[in-house]
Amino acid sequence: MSVSGAIAPNIQLGAKIKVEKEKRKRLGITGTISAVWLALIGLSALLAPWLPIPSPKQAYIDLVQPDGNAPFSTSGHVLGLDGGGHDMLAQTIHGARVSLQIAFGAVMFGMVVGGFLGLSAGFFKGKVDRFISTLFDIFLAVPALILAMSLVAFLSGSSAQSGFLSIERIMMLALGIVATPPLGRIARASTLTWSEREFVMAARAQGAKNFKIMFIEILPNVLPAMMSIALLSVGVVVVAEGGLSLLGVGVNFTDKPSWGNMIALYAQTDLQLHPWLVFTPIIAVFLTVLSLNNLGDIIRARFDAKETTL
Amino acid sequence: MAFLMRRLVRVITVVLFVTFFSYFLLNLLPGDPVDTIAPFATKEIKEAIRKENHLDRAVPVQYWFWVEKFVQGDLGYNYTPSSKNPVADDVKSHFPVSVQLVLYSILLTMLCAIPLGVFTAYAAGSRLDRGINTVLFGAFSIPDFAIGLLLAYFVGVKLGWLPNGGYKPFGSGLWTHARTMILPVISLAIAQIAGFTRVLRSDMIATLQEDFITMAKSKGISGKRVLWRHALRPSSLTLLTVAGLNVGALIGGTVVIEAIFNLPGMGLILTSAIRGRQFIALQSTVAIIAIGYVLINVMIDLLYTVLDPRVRNVS
Question: For residue range A154-164, what is the model confidence (pLDDT) as tens digits?
């Protein structure tokens, strides 16, 4: 999966994998920290409207200092205020809500569509496989971020007038389409190996229908491999949302802050004088991606999901 | 040769599909696409724009006209209230900037990642190796635009060492040119370096346990020579594979980094096309980038055949 964060960290090639396999049974310190951070940011994003934080639209104009409100300098506003007097903690948490919503939506889309296509390709082989694999190849032929960008641009151009898709949905759909081929390929590769196993033969011998075999026998075994890539993909989509915002597509800051549009806006207006405004969402993105990559690695080590079978 | 032909057919199919897909999307726009592209124009001008882009015809016909123009180097126009500029002119002047960025980043990546990878593989398990690994894991998780903005602030604003934007061509002097490229290139290269080093390290650790390395060592060849000659060589294919996988991310990153450092590359064409809702210009530019990307992948496939005789014989 590569949208903007380059390849997954642990790609190992050939039959050389076995040599340096770190089997980590438990989460370990870094794993725990990662999980705690993700739980914290996920919960506060989920519960943002009910948390004791001001609304991100609330402007404390009278508190704005001439040289900016740095974190910890204004009482009651831990992360400071931006130039318009908006509370930065509230913006970051509500931004997480939008960014993570898009990321999860996109990856869920990729899991469902990619999973279904990959499972079908690996299970039915032959013509079905060729058709689906070609489809994946075509979508992989455009750099992921460029594809996502033009999808968002075209789709938001088209629904601006009709308004049947909100910009968040459009982002989910566009980034979901981009996330589909890598997840689908993993599902396909994994299905190819699992569908030759004895228990699948046994199920077939007992007269199970194709769909039953696919979803009851094979899918549960394919999911772990997909999960570790999915975790990495969530991180990649969070980063992609930022990149797209910097390119000028995505959720509008004045409608709803997201990590991406916060970075894009403050980078333009405040980088010189109030850099912390830019760094706050950047740090949030970094910690989230770091945690997701770390957990993804741990799951990969646990389930020994190999990307080499692509 | 047959191999080349097959690749070529594939490339053309993919590009046709991708552009048709975006043409299809363009036609999803409800109402009149001309109103979207040039809302400011008078009725007569709108009619001219419609004629010029064959927007009055059926979608497949429109598309065919677009393809015909595209292969002749006519990429359509950017419409503004005061003028219309050929997109091809923009592409001609902006494309080299993006290519430079990508090339310099790959160069810097290799210069850093190969020694780092060889060293960490050689010293695998040592404290230094683990330290480097942790740093690389962190570096891998920083988005390129975050590195770009950090550098822009600390090096560009705080220290004031390097300019924070703008572009000077190579012709205006090596240092003048380099000054404008250093920060963007570092921003792009850091995640790449992390990725390459980690892959090279694990690949080389595996190679170092192979029999032919033991053999070379037992023949009395110096450790350095074994490391750089015998152990690194098989990894060249791995590096090539990773390079191929990463080019897409690199192109995406380049576009974003150009926006941050205000470099007149393909990213700038894209952003201004999006802002001005110039969908025809957008589509042509995306098609150019897609073609560039596919061609790079073909080149990498060809390099395989040069590096690995086994691939050559199969095809």
Answer: 887 765 555 66
Nearest residue in B to A157, CA atom: B29
Residue numbers in A near B146 (CB within 8 A): 242, 263, 282, 285-286
CATH number of the domain at A59, please.
1.10.3720.10
What count of other Cβ atoms lies within 10 Å of the Cβ of residue B125? 10
Considering only CA atoms, give the Rg of chain B: 24
Q: What average pLDDT is seen over chain B?
A: 84
Secondary structure of residue A13 in the 3-state scheme: coil
Domain with CATH 1.10.3720.10 in chain B: 89-309
DSSP bridge partners of A69: A81
pLDDT tens for each residue of B231-276: 888 888 888 888 888 888 899 999 999 988 889 989 888 888 888 8
Decide: A221 and A190 in contact? Cβ < 8 Å: yes
- Is the CB of residue B184 less than 8 Å from the CB of residue B223? no
Chain A residues near residue B242 by CB distance under 8 angstroms: 7, 11
d(CA B177, CA B166): 10
C-alpha–C-alpha distance, residues B62 and A120, integer Å: 35
CB-CB: which of A2, A149, A150 is closest to B248? A2
Q: End-to-end distance of chain B based on CA atoms, in angstroms?
A: 9
Interchain contact, A271 vs B18, CB within 8 Å: no
Unique residue bearing structure tokens 């993804």: A296
Q: Which of A221-235, B2-16, B231-245 has the lowest mean pLDDT?
A: B2-16
B194, B195, B252 ranked by CB distance to A3: nearest: B252
Tell the CATH topology of B89-309.
Answer: MetI-like fold (1.10.3720)
